[in-house]
Amino acid sequence: MTIHLGNGCSACAIRGGESLDTSMGFTPLEGLVMGTRSGDVDPALVSYLAQEEKVDAVEVEHWLNKRSGLLGVSGLSNDMRELMAAYDTNSRARLAVEVFCYRARKYLSAYLAVVGGAEAVIFSGGIGENSPAIREKICQNMEWCGLKFDSAANSLTVGRDGRISGADSRLKAFVVRTDEELIIARETGRLIRP
């Protein structure tokens, strides 16, 4: 199970090295709350907003991609660092953080059911690699699936690989740094080689 958290976010249910499900759909708009993308919304919202605001569906789609997510909920920023700095004093920043973490925990729980349990949860991406507070919020109340979170280990894992679950945790959790550009380059090279 992977949870990639950055300005763009996704979750992936993996069993035996094979992706069984991913939070992104036809476009990256589906799934988790992101920096400026809404994530999952009721499809009827598009026509409702188009009618209410007297705009076309293309404009509503633009709002859902560029003016929603952390930015839309907080009214402040799409940058998690700024939202965490304002967490205690700004109710909308706090709401944006809480919605972000709730939706990630919801996908994590659903995908654990999809794969029938997992060996590990991997956090990656700018937020996933660098925000111990967000990882801890996401992993709260996950003991039901065997995840025993280690707050001390989590606090030491900023911008580096490491285990963030307890030694006795049935479901392990790790931070794994990612280099998306390198992977894209390698996969492109593999595909274009004769």
Please describe what this structure looks like.
It contains nine helices and six strands. The two termini are 33 Å apart. The protein has one domain (2-192): 2-Layer Sandwich (Nucleotidyltransferase, domain 5). Strand 2 and strand 3 form a beta hairpin. Helix 1 crosses helix 2 (57-66). It has a six-stranded mixed β-sheet. The longest helix has 25 residues, at 91-115. The protein has 194 residues and is α/β, with parallel strands linked by helices.
Concise synopsis of the structure shown:
The two termini are 33 Å apart.
List the helices and strands and how they pair.
Blueprint: E1 2-5, E2 9-15, E3 18-22, H1 44-53, H2 57-66, H3 69-74, H4 80-85, H5 91-115, E4 120-124, H6 125-130, H7 132-139, H8 151-156, E5 162-163, E6 172-175, H9 180-192
Parallel strand pairs: 1-4, 4-6
Antiparallel strand pairs: 1-2, 2-3, 5-6
Helix pairs in contact: 1-2, 5-7
Helix content: 40-55%
Architecture per CATH nomenclature, i.e. the level-2 architecture:
2-Layer Sandwich
> What structural class results from the helix and strand content?
alpha/beta
State the shape. Answer: globular
Rg calc:
18 Å
Q: Give the number of DSSP strands.
A: 6
- Percentage of residues in DSSP E strands: 5-15%
Q: Give the full name of the CATH homologous superfamily.
A: ATPase, nucleotide binding domain
* Average of pLDDT: 95
CATH class: Alpha Beta
